[in-house]
Specification:
The chain is an alpha+beta fold and about 400 residues long. It has helices at about 5-20, 35, 50-60, 80-90, 100-115, 115-125, 240-260, 270-280, 290-315, 325-350, 365-375, 380-395, and strands at about 135, 150-155, 160-165, 175-185, 195-200, 205-210, 220-230, 235, 280, 285. Strand 2 and strand 3 (about 160-165) form a beta hairpin. The structure holds flavin-adenine dinucleotide.
């Protein structure tokens, strides 16, 4: 009899051979995302040889970017094949080989708006995890009202001269390159006159300063540009039309955030599993009826979210999706993440409040709980997503 799904069999056999055992299954309690997932880049130090091998093997097949075209080092898979790959990776509890703003944000924008030369130059190193990107959007006076940004890119003939400041730039101090929104025409209306520039963080005039947060471990930086010279061919799309690219990229960022947080983290134990282990069972059920109810609600909402995520992605691939759906996913995904962390704190009891020391896994639970609040802000706050849902999905008056 013919194999009913030869691609699935091929993927399964390949993973069996190529996914190292240590790259499967749950991270240990207290392990940071930097230990469990590779972020790549020029300065990346692999946490283990297996982490390096796993990235190398997946990148070789283009499976770090399964649906990108082969000519840009992607996997060239169609949507159905990419889904099979995701399912098979989940089946063996494989950790993502690479997490990167290049893969989830810049790449899709370049595929749509970049020149052929830009795609050839920037996409393959993203697939291989060679260049780590950061996002230069927010400024001290431009967050929710992003189009008010003031970082100036002055036309100097063959290059732009960039001056200004960004804030909340995650991992700017570890990134190799930045995708950056700049004002190319200060006299135009605020949504016009914006450019989308790419430049090396080692360019003279770029500096970063870390921002410390209550959770103790902050990825944030302030990023300063002081007469930075950026060649003109590093502007993506048309001059003064960067806002369209910025918005398109944000829909991908929101989907990435919802996928990351809404699903509860690849390979991690569910709250219910942790609760059963810590609190114990009574007559085969979790011994705390109140918590049981809350966990059931979270499980049902998570299932509904996963189905909606699948539907929205299918619709987008079939060409009849709406960018505004990413706001719905982002809002609900980060809400679920917040609820999951509230329940983890409830299950952990007094011990969950521990902040330092091995016994408390260096405060992993409390730090995760604090971090979950940030995901309702990054990529556009929950209030802004609700505004978009009201206006663009429900058709309510502005
Ligand atoms: C974890 C994390 C990572 C981040 N990473 C990056 C990054 O890498 N690069 C980057 O550029 N930025 C990054 N940011 C910044 C983020 O994009 C901004 O914080 C966000 O867009 C909100 O802007 P703001 O902080 O200036 O708040 P503000 O815009 O000042 O908002 C303050 C409050 O007012 C509310 N509000 C504002 N306008 C409205 C409105 N019209 N209707 C209703 N309520 C409104 C907001 O919801 C919020 O509660 C990150 C933020 C976080 C938390």
């Amino acid at each position: 009899m013919n194999d009913p799904d030869p691609f699935r069999s091929e993927v399964r056999a390949w993973l069996e051979l190529n996914c190292p055992q240590s790259m499967r299954g749950m991270p240990r309690q207290g392990q940071s995302s930097e230990e469990t997932v590779c972020w790549g880049g020029r300065r990346w130090v692999f946490a283990s040889e297996d982490q390096r091998i796993w990235l190398e093997r997946m990148a070789e097949r283009g499976w770090t970017a399964p649906e990108w075209p082969r000519e840009y080092a992607g996997g060239g898979l169609d949507h159905a094949q990419a889904k099979v790959l995701r399912e098979e990776l989940a089946r063996v509890h494989a950790r993502p080989p690479l997490a990167s703003f290049g893969l989830s944000m810049l790449g899709p924008a370049l595929l749509r708006f970049g020149s052929d030369e830009q795609k050839r130059r920037f996409l393959p190193p993203i697939v291989r995890g060679e260049i780590r990107w950061c996002q230069g959007y927010s400024e001290p006076g431009a967050g929710s009202d992003l189009a008010s940004l003031q970082t100036r890119a002055e036309d100097r003939g063959d290059h732009y001269r960039v001056n200004g400041q960004k804030i909340w730039t995650s991992y700017a101090d570890q990134a190799d390159w930045i995708f950056c929104l700049v004002r190319t025409d200060p006299l135009a209306a605020k949504h016009e006159g914006i450019g989308f520039l790419l430049f090396d963080m080692e360019s003279p005039g770029v500096s970063t300063r870390p921002i410390t947060l209550i959770s103790g471990s902050s990825p944030f930086c302030e990023t300063f540009f002081d007469d930075v010279r950026v060649p003109k061919h590093q502007l993506v799309g048309e001059v003064n039309k960067g806002w369209d690219i910025a918005k398109y990229l944000l829909t991908h960022e929101r989907e990435m955030i919802s996928g990351l947080f809404g699903a509860g983290g690849a390979g991690q134990a569910s709250v219910a599993e942790i609760a059963c282990e810590r609190i114990g069972l009574s007559h085969g059920r979790l011994a705390d009826p109140g918590l049981r109810h809350d966990l059931a609600r979270l499980a049902i909402d998570s299932e509904a979210f996963a189905s909606t995520l699948e539907r929205v992605v299918d619709e987008a691939k079939a060409g009849f999706g709406t960018g505004a759906a990413s706001s719905l996913l982002k809002y609900q995904g980060t809400e679920l993440n917040r609820q999951r962390h509230e329940l983890l704190m409830a299950v952990g009891g007094a011990e969950a409040l521990g902040w330092e020391g091995q016994r408390f896994s260096e405060g992993a639970l409390a730090r995760g709980w604090l971090r979950s609040k940030g995901s309702s802000i990054e990529g556009g706050t929950s209030e802004i997503q609700l505004n978009i849902i009201a206006k663009r999905l429900l058709g309510l008056p502005a």
